Amino acid sequence: MNTSQRFESAINKLYVAFNNNTLNPECCKQCAVGNILDNTDSWKHLSDNHGSFQLNYVGKVHQSFGRTFNGYTPLELLQIEITFLKACGYQLPLHHKNKKPENPTDKSVLFNGLSKVIELLCKLDDIPNVMDYQELFNHKKDKELQNA
């Protein structure tokens, strides 16, 4: 399967962050987008709130100029972060009064978020979902039927 450089880089960074316990949904440098952008928080200036659905003035300017950050547009970055936070169990935008997971750095919470992000990254690059394990079982089942 052919994948883009941005996809390969993002997946690699997210994998390392997950396995090194440096993936944290509440930290702009360690969330999904923070990790994709090399643990920087400069992306947070693209919207007014962490988990926001809309670009602010700065984000709109970057978007209109076609600027990308490690291959992703400002709108794509917001979409990635929103997907991650929602899948981790957050009510958006992030606010101390809104619903959030009891233990945000629990591996199962992070895995849910990561799975949804990977699904989105595949969709953004128009490739099959690499996390879709059902295809593996369907393929094996088809081969077993052919050999029977």
Strand content: under 5%
Question: How many domains?
Answer: 1
As residue ranges, the low-confidence spans are: none
Choose one word for the global shape: globular
How do the SSEs run, as a string of H and E?
Answer: HHHHHH
Helix residue percentage? 40-55%
Instruction: Describe the main β-sheet briefly.
Output: none
* Number of helices, where a helix is a run of at least 4 consecutive DSSP H or I residues: 6
Task: Walk me through what this model shows.
With 148 residues, the chain is mostly helical. It has one domain. Helices cover 51% and strands 0% of the residues. The protein is built from six helices and no strands. Helix 4 packs antiparallel against helix 5. The chain is globular. The model has no long low-confidence stretch (mean pLDDT 90).
Summarize the SSE layout with pairings.
Elements: H1 5-19, H2 32-36, H3 57-64, H4 74-88, H5 107-124, H6 134-147
Helix pairs in contact: 1-5, 4-5
